[in-house]
Design a protein that fits this description.
The complex is a heterodimer. Chain A is mainly α. Helices cover 67% and strands 0% of the residues of chain A. In chain A, helix 2 runs antiparallel to helix 3. In chain B, strand 3 and strand 4 form a beta hairpin.
Amino acid sequence: MGGLVSSWPPRVTLIGFILVAVQTGVAPELRPFGVVIQVVLAFAAAAGAASGPSEGAMAGFVLGLMYDLGTGTPLGATAFTMTLAGYTAGWGRQYRIEPKWWILALLTMAGTTVGESAVPFVRVMIGETDVVSSRMLVVVPVVAVASGILSPMFVPLARWCLRIRPTELRLPADA
Amino acid sequence: MANFSPGRRRVIAVLALTSVLLLTLDLRGNQVFDGIRSAFSVLVSPFGKAVEVVSAPVVRLWRAYDDYDRIVEENRVLRAQVDAQRSAEIAAQNAIIENQDLLALEGLESLASYDSVTARLIGQSPGNFDQQVEIDRGAVHGIRVGMAALNEAGLVGKVTSVSPQSSVIMLLTDPSYAVPVKILATQELPTPVATSTTSTTIAPDAVSVPDASSETSSTTPSPTASSSTSTTVPEIVRETGVLRGQGEVRLPRVYFIASTTSFGRIEVGDTVFTSGGSTSLAPPNIPVGRVANVITRAGTAGQELEIEPTADLDRLQFVRVVLYLPQSELGG
C-alpha cells in the first residue's frame, strides 16, 4: 500500500470508529464506582506511550475529533484534551528506548489523568458552569486506573495503528 | 509513520490552535459541522450495532453482578409504594380528566393537546461530565432541537442534537440545562366559617330505676356535648424561577426566586412544574419535581430551592418528546 493508505490515519480512524462505538454503547453500562471508563481517551494515551509526544498528540487529536462527532460534545473540546493526553504519555515515553509494559501502563495512566482532568476546565473555558466539582477526585483516578489496566491491550493496538515496532526509537525532529 | 516526526512543540501548538478554532466555529453554530455530525452518526451506526451484539453478554453479566441487591431492595420499596398509591391514582386520574375537560371548555392548551413521539433509549452519556441520553427517534419523526422530553413521571430534559434517526437529550441534571418553572404550594389555611354548640341529653343514662323506697322518679343532669366546626380553604401559592442542573451528584436548583412575602410559604414537598411562556422551550404544566430543600442565602442574594426530580433519570427506558415549539420559535 502506498500514499494515504499506507499512512497511519486510516488505521487510527478505523479503530476510532470501534472505540467510539464502545464508548457510547458499552462504557456507560459498566460504571465502576459510578464512573464511565474512557476507552477512547485511554487509547489516545496508549498511542502516546507507544510512540512519542508528536504522534500521541496527533492520534489523540484525531480520536478526540471522532469522540466529539460521535457524542455531540462541542467539536474540538475533547480533541484538545485527548491531544494533551497523547502528548503527556508520549513525553514520558521518549526517555526510554524499550520501556517495560508497566512503564507503558504508568505513562498511559499519566496521560489519561491529564486528559480527563482537563475536560472540566475546557468546559469552563467555553462557558459551562458547575462542571468542576469534588467528584473529579473519584472520576480521574478510576478512569486512570482503568486505562492502566487496558494499556497492555491498547499499546500493541496503538503500535499497529501507528505502524511502529516495539523497539523502534522515535526521536522528535527538534530534539 | 516512521518518517513523520515534526517538531513536537509545533505539533502541539498547531493542534491546540486547531481545537480552539473548531470550538469557536462550533459554538457559534455551524451547519457544516452539523452535517458532518449527522454523517458520522450514520457511519458509526454499524460499528455500534456490532459492538452491541458482541458486548451484550458482558454487559448482562456486569448488570447481574452490579444491580442484583439494589433491584431486590428497590422492588420491595416499589411494591410498598404501589400499594400506597393505588387509591391516590384513581383520585388523580379523575382530577386529570376534570382538568382537561375544563381546559377544553375554556379553549386553553394543556399537555394533552400537543403531539408527541415516544422513543426508546439507545445510549447513555459516554462521558463523566455530561448528563445526556440518546434515543432512537430523530428528525424524520418530527423531533427538533429544543423540544422537551418527559416520561410518565415528569420532565426528563430537552433535545440538544438531532440526527435523522436518533436524537440526544440533555437531562435536567446537566449543568447546562435551564428551564423556567413555577412552584405551586397548596396551603390549607384554617378558616373558621361556622361554629355551633350542641347540647344533647342522653336518655338511657338519665333514667333511674324506680326505687322501692321512693315513689318518685328522677332524671340525672344530662351530659352536654359541644362541637366546633371549621372549614379549610386551600390557597395556591405560585412562584416562578429558573431551574438549572447541577451535575449528576447534586440536585437541580431553582434560581431567581423573588423574595416576596409569599415565598416564605414554599416548603419542602411543594410541587414544581414548567411554567411555559412564549420563550420557554418546554410547554407549561409538565411536572418537574418536588422541593427537597429551601436554601436561604444572606443579603440580597435571594433564595434557592433544591428540587428532587419526579422522573428517575437513572432508570430511563422510554421517553416522550413533546412536539412543541414556543411562539418565539414559530415566528408567531
